[in-house]
Each structure stands twice: as C-alpha cells, then as structure tokens.
Design goal:
8-stranded antiparallel sheet
C-alpha cells in the first residue's frame, strides 16, 4: 500500500487539513485544496471564488452546477464564504454522479435562530430513503441536529452558539450514523445508512429545506456557509478531529 505524507497546509476557507502518514485508499488524505481532486469527493463547494456566479461549478468529482440566488460572497480567512438571507437559495439539480454518500461536512454560521421548535436547513436532498440531509432545530433551552444518510435519519442534542462558526460532520460507518460537532462526537445511532445517500429527482439544497421544487424553499439558514463536502467513503474520527483544527478530541 502506498502512503502520502502531508505537510500542514491551510484550506482556502481558513481551515487546516489533517496531517500525518495516511493510506491513499481512504478519504483521510486531503490535499492543501479544500476541494481536492479526489474521485471520492463527489460534491464540494468552497465559496472561495473572487465572486460567486449564478451557476457555481462543483469543485468535486461530479459535473454539476449549483444555482445561486441572492447569495453574497463574504471574506473569511484567506478565502470566502456564502452569506445567506431570508430570500437566498442554493440549489443543485439532480445528477446520478452523486451517489453512495457516506459522509457530509459543513462549516456554517447561524446569525439568527428559528422559533422554538422550528428548524434551519443546512443541506437537504428531500427524498427518502436515499436522503442526504442535515437540519438544525431549536429546542429550548438547547438545540438538536438531525442528520440523514441513506435510509437512516437520527436526531441528537447539541450545544450550538448563534453567531459562531461551527464545523459539523455526519458519517455512516459500519451501518451506524455518527454526528460530530467541532470534531467531537455528540451521538451515534445504529441504522440502515450503509446504502448511502444520493441525489434523486428533487436535487439538493444548501442552506434551506428542499421542498421538492427547484424554485420553492423554506426553513432557510440565515447566516453563512464556508464550505460543503460530500464523500462516498466514511471519514474517521481522527480525520474529523484534525479537520476541526484540534490536536485531539
């Protein structure tokens, strides 16, 4: 087995990649680029472009453009992020190139909260059982995260702060869904996720709930997103911890 030895690069979004000698047959070997040239990285948006076009090309392996409406680029670190408001939408059309998704990552900042019992969509492909979804719920006095991959959907309590940048990762490993906040696992639930998530007829939304229509969105995130990645292999807890910028979790 060949190995890649990585230095300590910084992603354009301002995040450090994992470091060390890791097998090149897993997703634990990202390069200095936030959206590395890797066939296992099926969908990736860094929002690092100097200006965000209305049709934003996927920086991952799938040939598909995200359709941006009322999305503003802001600077974060050495790169950029997408600022979203009450009329913003990011929609990715259906493509058979996004399939068997075993892990999703997102860096987001919520600038406003839904009412108690309400939710904000972070990513959503809408259709189950092949769903790829992640929602933030307000459940006073705290919050919940609900992730779905494949045929499994689970919610976990989480401590989240409005106005702060947060890294989330949801992973299917050995048919168990695992949720991580800032590199720390907050929950693990056995479930039928091994089939993986996929894009189906309804496509995929970022920063809102997918209603099934490419022109109708609700449960929008009011805040910003600094990067989204969908992998067709699981991510290890070590990789997630290091991606969160922590020496250990």
């Amino acid at each position: 087995m060949r190995y890649l030895v990585l230095v300590l690069p910084v992603f354009g979004c301002g995040f450090q990649s994992p470091v060390g000698a890791v097998p090149d047959a897993t997703s634990d070997a990202p390069s200095a680029l936030f959206c590395a040239a890797d066939p296992r990285l099926r969908l990736c948006y860094s929002f690092d472009q100097e200006s965000l076009p209305a049709a934003l090309p996927d920086e991952g392996a799938a040939a598909v453009d995200a359709q941006l409406t009322n999305v503003t680029r802001i600077t974060r670190g050495s790169g950029g992020a997408a600022l979203l408001g009450t009329t913003s939408s990011i929609f990715v059309p259906m493509t058979p190139e996004v399939t068997n998704i075993q892990a999703l990552e997102i860096w987001y900042r919520a600038d406003a909260e839904p009412l108690n019992g309400g939710r904000s969509g972070l990513v959503d492909s809408n259709v189950s059982p092949l769903n790829i979804s992640l929602f933030l719920y307000r459940q006073d006095p705290g919050h919940q995260l609900r992730c779905g991959l494949g045929a499994a959907v689970t919610s976990w309590d989480a401590s989240l702060t409005v106005g702060s940048w947060t890294y989330l990762a949801c992973v299917c490993e050995a048919d168990s869904l695992k949720m991580y906040v800032e590199g720390v696992k907050v929950g693990e639930t056995p479930g039928p996720c091994a089939s993986g998530g996929a894009f189906v007829t309804d496509g995929f939304t970022i920063g809102s709930n997918n209603t099934g229509s490419p022109s109708i969105f609700d449960d929008r995130l009011v805040g910003a997103i600094d990067g989204v990645r969908l992998w067709n292999v699981p991510l290890t807890s070590t990789t997630i911890c290091q991606t969160a910028g922590k020496p250990s979790c």
